[in-house]
Automatic annotation (TrEMBL):
Name of this protein: Dual-specificity RNA methyltransferase RlmN
Gene3D superfamilies tied to this protein: 1.10.150.530, Aldolase class I
Cofactor note as given: Binds 1 [4Fe-4S] cluster. The cluster is coordinated with 3 cysteines and an exchangeable S-adenosyl-L-methionine.
Active-site residues, record numbering mapped to chain: 97, 352
Record family assignment: Belongs to the radical SAM superfamily. RlmN family.
Lineage of the organism: Bacteria, Pseudomonadati, Pseudomonadota, Gammaproteobacteria, Lysobacterales
Catalyzed reactions per annotation: adenosine(2503) in 23S rRNA + 2 reduced [2Fe-2S]-[ferredoxin] + 2 S-adenosyl-L-methionine = 2-methyladenosine(2503) in 23S rRNA + 5'-deoxyadenosine + L-methionine + 2 oxidized [2Fe-2S]-[ferredoxin] + S-adenosyl-L-homocysteine; adenosine(37) in tRNA + 2 reduced [2Fe-2S]-[ferredoxin] + 2 S-adenosyl-L-methionine = 2-methyladenosine(37) in tRNA + 5'-deoxyadenosine + L-methionine + 2 oxidized [2Fe-2S]-[ferredoxin] + S-adenosyl-L-homocysteine
Name of the coding gene: rlmN
Length: 384
């Protein structure tokens, strides 16, 4: 062991990584890794001293070579409807949001994968921030840890967190390795013990990575579709210019076919006069029915209808209730299950599409102001 090495943040590691760390770095038995994993994720313990079933010598060794760094909760707020939002501080002024949405018999946590996003979907509030950086595994699983601690979640016993959706800030497949590792802790009995189908990854349609996900993980897939025609989707989700709807649907079919009974959820945000007309509903129904036919399962395609949540500066508006109902009716008549997602946490800006790190905005404005001042003073590198 090299004492000069930086300490390993154990939140960065899934079961495999933790076992390797114990065996190769600490020269300890594999099962010790399992004990520590339970202390961290089941009991929310972050100091080795509290891990009372480990010997004194091992605790001292851990102290020397490892640490448990969890996200810093900058702010948290509960909504009247039970929705809860945390603003978590990452390094140097970066902040991300995590939202908990309780519903009949389930508690869903919406987790972020990046600070900002590079994909520039025109109806998305996160996109207006631009892309800052990928989150580490520790920062992704740390969101589950922080929410779990706050909610008093005990995997296998007091389960408050029953589902995780990788649907917060960022495109999770652009941060593949860290996201897959974090999802492995979510699904591990020594982690959060969630069934594979209760962890959902939502993508804008990064086709090669959907295929890689099919090989390397086993979670539910959701696709942000939002339009049934390529010209419209090119405008709403610019990634469509690279992977058009037909290419994306092929990848979804491959994903569903890898396992019997697998469905894929298609998210469709309804925007007034943009994508909410009967011709859109009919074309969407056809796409979904084709998907069912190819997967050979009558309800393989699930559609989630999401009324658009306006945010400052957006050019889009929410569809009218009548148009939403009419759209849903077309899908239902085609035999599709298409619930309309209820807007939650409105009073705390936690509703979908409002995941905007306001602290990030503020710190970015401050940084820009400081740069401008420096430039005025003739400082070098003001544009870096
Ligand atoms: S909708 Fe998702 S993929 Fe598109 S810009 Fe927003 S966070 Fe990124």
């Amino acid at each position: 062991m090299n004492d000069a090495q930086p300490k390993q943040n154990l939140l960065e590691l899934d079961r495999d990584g933790l076992e390797r760390f114990f065996v190769e770095t600490l020269d300890e038995k594999r099962f010790r890794a399992h004990q520590v994993m339970k202390w961290i994720h089941h009991r929310h313990v972050t100091t080795f001293d509290e891990m009372t079933d480990l010997g004194k010598a091992l605790r001292a060794k851990l102290e020397q070579h490892a640490e448990i760094i969890v996200p810093n909760v900058l702010f948290d707020k509960g909504s009247e409807d039970g929705t809860h939002k945390w603003l978590l501080g990452m390094d140097g002024g970066n902040a991300i949001e995590t939202v908990y949405i309780p519903d009949k018999g389930r508690g869903t946590l919406c987790v972020s994968s990046q600070v900002g996003c590079a994909l520039n979907c025109t109806f998305c509030s996160t996109a207006t921030q631009g892309f800052n950086r990928n989150l580490s595994t520790a920062e992704i699983i740390g969101q589950v840890w922080a929410a779990g601690r706050h909610l008093g979640n005990v995997p296998h016993r007091e389960r408050r967190l029953t589902n995780v959706v990788m649907m917060g800030m960022g495109e999770p497949l652009m941060n593949f390795d860290n996201v897959v590792r974090a999802m492995s802790v979510m699904r591990d009995d020594l982690g959060y013990g969630l069934a594979n189908k209760r962890v959902t990854l939502s993508t804008a349609g990064l086709v090669p990575m959907i295929d890689r996900l099919a090989n390397e993980s086993d979670v539910s897939l959701a696709v942000s579709l939002h339009a049934p025609f390529d010209d419209l989707r090119n405008e709403l989700v610019p990634l469509n210019k690279k992977y058009d709807i037909a290419t994306l649907m092929d990848a979804c079919v491959r994903y569903a076919q890898r396992k019997k009974g697998e469905s894929v959820t298609f998210e469709y945000t309804l925007m007034r006069g943009v994508n909410d007309q009967p011709e859109h509903a009919r074309a969407l129904s056809k796409l979904m029915r084709d998907f069912d036919r190819r997967v050979q399962m009558s309800d393989a395609a699930k559609v989630n209808l999401i009324p658009f949540n306006p945010f400052p500066g957006t050019r889009y508006e929410r569809s009218s209730s009548d148009d939403i109902r009419a759209f849903q009716k077309v899908l239902n008549n085609a035999g599709l299950v298409a619930p309309v997602r209820r807007t939650r946490g409105d009073d705390i800006d936690a509703a979908c599409g409002q995941l905007k790190g306001q602290v990030l905005d503020r710190t970015r404005r401050q940084a820009e102001h400081a740069k401008r001042l420096k430039a005025q003073e003739g400082g070098v590198d003001a544009a870096a």
